[in-house]
Amino acid sequence: MTSLIEQGIIFEKEGRYKEAIAEYEKAALEEPKNIGPLIKKANLLEEVGDFENALKSFNAAILLNSQDTEALSLRGDVLVSLKRYDEAIIDFSKAISINHKDINSYYNRGLAYAIIDQNEKALQDLTTAIQLDPMHGAAYNNRGLLFYKLSDYQSAILDFTQAIKVRTGFACSFTHRGSVYEKLGKTKTAIEDYTQGLNINPTDATALFFRGTLYFSLNENDKGLKDFELLIKTAPHDNHFRELALQKTEALNT
């Protein structure tokens, strides 16, 4: 016989999210001391963007077990989504105090610190995440972004390069590294990196905009226009780079 949790998982895999949530709620009522259904429900609510109700479910789970590092770390993620960064950092910090090898909490606390410009703390946490997991591509990538923000371009290049090595097919690290090379005036290398990223994801809006803009600055207008036209065609209408590309192409046509 299929349990309520198992049925919820089946519904979730089928994309029947409301039904999955209902099954998790039933499971939580059936097992009021079990935080598992509450975490399942909260994760799904977060996935569909209902952060307030996800937070309520995580709160209920943590009331049952305040030492559960998974629930604390996941609630921290939701608090970040709600831009409640100080509270998120408290949750990540508590999870770390319980488990000093909690890679996700170090990583996510680092991201939260970076958002509020506590850059040294962000660097420290992302570095710890990398020390605990040398294959953590996202940590290398985000530490690279932080180094770029701090104008430490050589360190940024090293981190983006490492992100590419440990996470094959990670297009955005090529784009980020390309932007550093462009900043350093290495335009040929920058274009090569943007192109590498686009070979992985041919409609990546950021790479198309960066490469197109660089082409225009080099007076290679045909190539720039080709990138911008693809960007306009494929990016969501509310994409910032799409709007800038539209303005550029309209200016060229007047």
List the main descriptive attributes of the protein structure presented here:
single chain, Serine Threonine Protein Phosphatase 5, Tetratricopeptide repeat, 15 helices, 0% strand
Question: Outline of this structure?
Answer:
The protein is an all-alpha fold.
CATH homology-level superfamily of the domain at 134-189: Tetratricopeptide repeat domain
Helix/sheet category:
mainly alpha
Determine the CATH topology of the domain at 134-189.
Answer: Serine Threonine Protein Phosphatase 5, Tetratricopeptide repeat
Helical amount among residues, as a percent range? over 70%
Shape: globular
**Chain-averaged pLDDT:** 96
**What is the count of DSSP helices, taking H or I runs of 4+ residues?**
15
Total number of strands: 0
Spatial separation of the terminal alpha carbons: 69 Å
Give me the CATH architecture of the domain at 134-189, please. Answer: Alpha Horseshoe
Largest sheet: none
Q: What's the gyration radius in Å?
A: 22 Å
Strand content: under 5%
CATH class of the domain at 134-189: Mainly Alpha
Uncertain stretches: none
Assembly category: single chain
**What is the H-and-E element order?**
HHHHHHHHHHHHHHH
Describe the structure.
By secondary structure, the protein is mainly alpha-helical. Among the domains are: 134-189, Tetratricopeptide repeat domain (Serine Threonine Protein Phosphatase 5, Tetratricopeptide repeat); 202-254, no CATH class. It is built from 15 helices and no strands. The chain has helices at 4-13, 17-30, 36-47, 51-64, 69-81, 85-98, 103-115, 119-132, 137-149, 153-166, 171-183, 187-200, 205-217, 221-234, 240-252. α12 runs antiparallel to α13 (205-217). The model has no long low-confidence stretch (mean pLDDT 96).
